[in-house]
Design brief:
Layout (H helix, E strand, L loop, with lengths): L2 E6 L2 E6 L7 H14 L15 E5 L5 E2 L5 H4 L5 E6 L28 E4 L6 H8 L4 E4 L1 H19 L24 H12 L3 E4 L2 H15 L8 H12 L3 E2 L2 E3 L8 H11 L4 E4 L3 E4 H7 L11 H6 L3 H31 L9 H5 L4 H14 L7 H5 L10 H4 L1 H23 L7 E3 L4 E3 L7 H29 L21 H17 L21 H31 L8 H11 L12 H12 L2 H15 E2 L23 E2 L2
Helix pairs in contact: 3-6, 3-11, 5-8, 6-7, 6-11, 11-13, 11-16, 11-17, 11-19, 13-16, 13-22, 16-17, 17-18, 17-19, 18-19, 19-21, 20-22
Length: 654
């Protein structure tokens, strides 16, 4: 029989429905009958039939017409909220930030799996798990290790041994021995008391990442989790039953205690949970709607669920993946700007960069050559100023390999640390089944990812800093051959004037966000945890810095494409024309002033989806896979006794 879960004021009520051709009004009245049944004063409701109310689905928060039939607007086991006229809508429902979550009504349960063993997950895998592209399963080897680890813990409890976190209290209470009869209560109390975070909840994608990463760490078999509990976590992940996890409250040692406690609390059937099916609701009802049961904690399992660096690391994985994507696309955007500003490619000569062979610098210079090489891709714009009297370009164009290069090298450094952390056991105490012992250590300390993510923010910020200066050059007629603010009839139209201000504001905000959080430490837990990493803030602000960089580069890309309009009918190189066409597929040229914010958002989406990179990548790959002698055309920026003829023949690598 179909059944619906209805929230009225502070109560959840299960309402069976034999006939789904009944109306939403009927469902609301049936729920009200159940609500007033156990109220001495009928809950202040004189007559159910005369009570006026609104009904909305918890998923998507859409209001329902009371005259619609249940069959038309609801599905079996749906969650709805009923608000009685005069009441306010419940604050218990927390809408996701607009535009953030893809796990909405359009969500389709994935059919593919990623097998976790605790050793081979990557930051790319983790981000894809967050996006809902895969389900999770354990490898046979991981299951065996988990079982062996749990058997050792069960032996410790059976023999009444005193071991931290298993038969004792925590932190300052580490010397307090707990009776065996209260070990379950000990673990539950740990999770409840440590669920003390504040702030907005993590988005569903980020909560999926957090849960997936915790599962991966437990799969290593050094935490003492039982296989039953771990499989229950996997079932919750595969159903996208996601706990309410506030983003603030971790100091990054002893791990991310508050966020991971909130994650565990929902799995216990307490607090709030979200799923594509239910929206936000009480955790026990969300689990029940998906045919799942709350987990029951055994000795040490509460500690195993909450001790580790998984929030820092999961947010860090998203930050480093997005940073890598924007760094690659920054080269393409800058190359287009260089063309519009009629810069020279001489500064990207491979011989220059061979003399300072930092990998990132060499790579960026090669990308510029692959996009701008005049023999490989003819450019009418480049030919139009080949014999101009300009001696050299500004640093914002000439020094892109040096500035963008260190950002690329730092991103790779950080990615290596994040990938190591993703597959690290960060619990305490660690369980060594093969040695038959548990050992207290400090793997939960978040200094590694905290420091790395502070580095990441500083490095990737520079891509926006130099981009904002290029936007200034595009908009300033004294620095370019373009109209002021890239618009005709200046004065009547303001063009890109305030778009540049937005870029400047974002860069300035990033300067503050780039102050490293990991240089701070405050002693906590009665001086037991007397040095902490502050890695949670390092991760959150790194993500914000990356987002700002994406937005600044979106503005530069818009401005560069607008600049091309004033150089027509001249054309740039083939790959950069493809980038121009991509932008024009979502944003039309700026003829006169219009609402600009949607244009910036549209191009930001192209960058987020890596479409700018995907358009240019085939040309970059082809250039790099072939040996193509560099075109070194005669130019006032270089002196040569015998200018060599520009070779045009392509010779493939043998």
């Amino acid at each position: 029989m179909p059944r619906f879960t209805v929230h009225i004021r502070d109560e959840w009520l299960a309402v069976p429905c034999r006939d789904t051709t009944n109306s939403i009004r009927w469902l609301g009245q049936e729920a009200l009958k159940r609500y007033i049944k156990n109220k001495p004063d009928n809950g202040g409701i004189a007559d159910v039939k005369d009570t006026r109310f609104l009904v909305r689905r918890c998923q998507g928060l859409g209001l329902l017409d009371t005259d619609d039939t249940i069959d038309d607007v609801l599905e079996d086991n749906d969650f709805v909220e009923l608000a009685i006229e005069g009441d306010t809508m419940s604050p218990d429902f927390i809408p996701c930030q607009p535009g953030v979550s893809h796990l909405t009504a359009a969500y389709r349960e994935p059919g593919e799996f990623i097998a976790l063993d605790g050793n081979s997950l990557t930051s790319t895998d983790l981000v894809n798990l967050g996006r809902g592209l895969y389900k999770i399963k354990l490898t046979a080897g991981a299951e065996m290790k988990v079982v062996q680890s749990r058997e050792l813990l069960d032996t410790i409890v059976k023999e009444n041994k005193v071991v931290y976190g298993i038969t004792t209290g925590f932190g300052k209470f580490a010397r307090t021995v707990i009776p065996v009869s209260k070990l379950k209560e000990l673990q539950e109390n740990l999770v409840r008391s440590h669920s003390a975070g504040v702030g907005n909840p993590l988005s569903p994608e980020r909560t999926r990442m957090l849960l997936a990463l915790r599962i991966n760490v437990l799969a290593k078999g050094h935490s003492g989790i039982s296989l039953e509990t771990l499989l229950a976590m996997i079932q919750a992940f595969n159903a996208s039953c996601l706990s309410f996890v506030p983003e603030k409250g971790t100091v990054g040692a002893s791990g991310d205690l508050a966020p991971l406690s909130h994650l565990a609390l929902g799995l216990m059937g307490e607090g709030k949970m979200w799923s594509p099916k239910s929206g936000w609701a009480d955790a026990k009802y969300v689990l029940e709607a998906h045919g799942l049961k709350p987990i029951t904690l055994r000795p040490k399992e509460g500690l195993a669920l909450i001790n580790g660096t998984q929030m820092i690391t999961s947010l860090g994985a998203e930050a480093v993946e997005r940073a890598q994507a924007i760094a690659r696309q920054a080269d393409i955007v800058a190359a287009l700007t260089l063309e519009v500003l009629k810069g020279t490619t001489k500064a990207f000569d491979s011989d220059i960069h061979t003399l300072r062979p930092h990998p990132g610098q060499v790579e960026v210079a090669q990308r510029f050559r692959s996009l701008l090489d005049s023999d490989h891709h003819s450019s009418q714009i480049a030919e139009s100023h080949r014999f101009c009297d300009r001696v050299q370009d500004a640093y914002t164009m000439r020094c892109c390999p040096q500035v963008h290069g260190i950002a690329n090298d730092t991103i790779k450094f950080v990615q290596n640390i994040i990938n190591t952390e993703i597959n690290s056991a960060t619990d305490n105490p660690m369980v060594f089944a093969e040695r038959g012992e548990t050992i207290s250590g400090g793997n939960f300390h978040g200094e590694y990812p905290a420091k790395a993510l502070d580095f990441l923010a500083i490095a990737v910020h520079e891509l926006a800093s130099i981009s904002e200066r290029r936007i200034e050059r595009l908009c300033n007629p004294s620095l370019s051959e373009l109209p002021a603010f890239l618009v005709n009839e200046g004065g009547l139209n303001s063009g890109f004037m305030i778009a540049h201000c937005t870029a400047a504001a974002l860069v300035s905000e990033n300067k503050v966000l780039c102050h490293p959080s990991s240089v701070d430490s405050l002693s906590t837990s009665a001086a037991t945890e007397d040095h902490v990493s502050m890695g949670g803030w390092a991760a959150r602000k790194a993500l914000r810095v990356v987002e700002h960089v994406e937005q600044v580069l979106a503005i530069e890309l818009l401005a560069a494409c607008q600049g091309i309009e004033f150089l027509r009918p001249l054309r740039t190189t083939t790959p950069l024309e493809k980038v121009y066409d991509l932008v024009r597929s979502v944003v039309k040229p700026w003829i006169k002033d219009r609402f600009m914010s949607p244009d910036i958002e549209a191009v930001h989406r192209l960058i987020l989806d890596q479409k700018v990179w995907n358009v240019a990548k085939p040309y970059i790959d082809k250039y790099q896979s072939e040996y193509i002698p560099e075109s070194r055309p005669i130019s006032p920026t270089a002196f040569s006794l015998d200018p060599p003829a520009s070779p045009r023949k392509r010779i493939r690598h043998e």
